Amino acid sequence: MSPFLAAIFLLGLCLANAVNFSTVYEWDKFDFVWPSGADTSIGQIKDEYKPGNVYLSYMAVFGERLFLSLDTYSGIPATLVWLPTSGNSTSPPKLAPFPSWHLHKKDNCDFIQAAKGMKTDTDGRLWVLDDGNKKCPGKIWIFNLLNHDTTERVHQFPDTVVSNSYIRRELREIVLEKTPDDYIAYITDAKSENIVVYSRKTDKSWSIKTPRRKWESLAVSTNTEAKQLYLGRYGSKELYSVSLSELKNEGGSAAVKFIGEWTHQPYRMLIDSANVMYTAFYSWEHISKWNISQPFHEQRLHEVGRAFWPFTFALDTNGTFWMTQRNQSVSAIRHKLLKAAVSKRSNLFSTSAVLTTLAETSGQQQITTESSTSSLRVESTPPPSLTTGEAQNLLGVFFINLSPQSKLIGKTQPRPQSSISLPFLILLQTCHCVAEPEIGKNANLFQAHIDG
Hints:
Shape: globular
Strand order of the largest sheet: 1-24-23-22
Oligomer: single chain
Structural class: mainly beta
CATH architecture of the largest domain: 6 Propeller
Largest sheet: 4 strands, antiparallel
Mean pLDDT: 75
Number of strands: 28
CATH topology of the largest domain: Neuraminidase
């Protein structure tokens, strides 16, 4: 095999592991679907609305709708909105208050005040965590999306579970566990040393003590024998876990287990059906991942340019990863809605499949880079991804079988003159473009000595 073809082959390995994000919508600024009529209060809100104050906080997806919570900065007319996941118009959609403008009245405790974390369940409900405000206590809102978005239930937390005092609570995230006869919600309150638990069946909430530790981000894994709740510690890089079974005892305490330490402080976590956790970090413009079935090892997945709290994300039932991305420069703010297939992807991967794909796309497929990301992206559906070990084995087999005279040379051995081309060596050094950066790090430990 010629050095040129070998370089193409390794490039295929890199791209096969890259997540192929496609842009769904882009906004220079957000606008709302304003109501018609003579509602003077809405008219005043519209006049005071400042697009630059829109910060997307949390996301959920169900069917063809995507739900977003907005931080309640000055001039934001609604804290909970939705938009379609697809449309016929080329212009980006406006944000529509959910379920309607009627449910968004400031300082009225019968309405949503500060939507935070949210999740959808498999029975078509949207769960929204409401942090309230100085006048209104914290709540859970449950909407029935299959019944005209009706409010199915509103649960107000007792003061013994979540403080009614606004300065003593800070509700952040909610995740769901489906049991044979119930849905259980797990919630973080960043100002208490507790995990808050809620049962839909009994309409009852309670707190589980975790002394000397406060929590911010959450992710739940129910696709394993030992169901676990993963916890991002408030103000820390540390990651912990706790068995869900320990959280069922009302008024009890839980022994959390230290898992590892991220490179930065996380503010969002999510686990897909393949047991891969996705994490976003404060003040850092990238998303990392970790397969929870393996020892803790952070791997960078996606990166953008300068940004401020740039990401919200969610998974739909088809294994599609939906993500908003905020790019902020001195002169402009730009938002994107992106999507990528990440879950339920096969780990089977073969050399012939790579070569066939490259042959079919040679001269036709363009490899592009976007100014907002450093990741290479192929404008097509990527092949199945490799695990790190599979990729290393495949690289070894590939090098050994390049020709009868090929040799695999380790760094600890003398390094002979190599007849391989410079682009080939550069490719080995720059294979960190993949979603498994460990492959790139190990790839540059080897040289191929190719004769002919």
